[in-house]
Design a protein that fits this description.
Layout lengths: L1 H37 L2 E9 L1 H12 L3 E4 L10 E9 H11 L3 E6 L2 E6 L6 H8 L1 E7 L5 H9 L2 H9 L3 E2 L17 E7 H11 L3 E9 L4 E8 L7
Parallel strand pairs: 2-5, 2-9, 7-10
Antiparallel strand pairs: 1-3, 4-5, 6-8, 9-10
Length: 234
Amino acid sequence: MWLKYVSVVSIILVITISNSYRTEAQSLDSSRKNSELATRLIKNVALEGQLWNLLTRLSLDYDIPIGLEISSDEQLSNRYRVELSEGTIADLMGQITTQNERYDWLIENGVVNIFPRDKHRNAFLAELLKVRIGNFAVTQNSDCWKLEQDLVNTPEVKAVIDAHGMRTGTNFSGSYIPQLGRQFSVKVSDTTLKAILNRIIRESRLARIWVISTDAFSRTLGLRVNSRQLEESH
């Protein structure tokens, strides 16, 4: 009986230690990837425009995975400019945040996240990005518009939208419908909306940026995912 008890305890200890090493290895790998992204060299950047437009062009033209949460204080008249003959992604983010101190940036799980500092955050968006979605899947041959609609129509996200008396906006970007990639698929469970968006932007070969915002006047939520117009090689 005693030997059986010792054996069970030993097995539990081995599993616990193994899981601990695995978690630590994953954490170190994530930190390494975040550091590599922050220090990636970028050349010949000269962009100007509204924040969402500038970051969209930056993400698509320079293949940078970006997530943007728009501040409740952001104005359409706000203009940003970045110029960099040669430098890192961290240098670029520093230029942007020094032009508007309402924002900060952080690389999370291989994605550059730009977000408002606490007192400038929209409470609705902050709550929405933290919502945990029970189950969500993206199937092959999905496009960005379908992704956006599927996310806002999940029961968990829709409940928050309805509770705040908000509605979702429509998306239109001309004749081109941004794609996620013919072979791209993902399946998650018990994951926050923000983590899902970051994972898609990180793993999709085409999608490079997500942007979330609100229009206070029309009480409309805007969730946009954009991608590069490139065909995947077989």
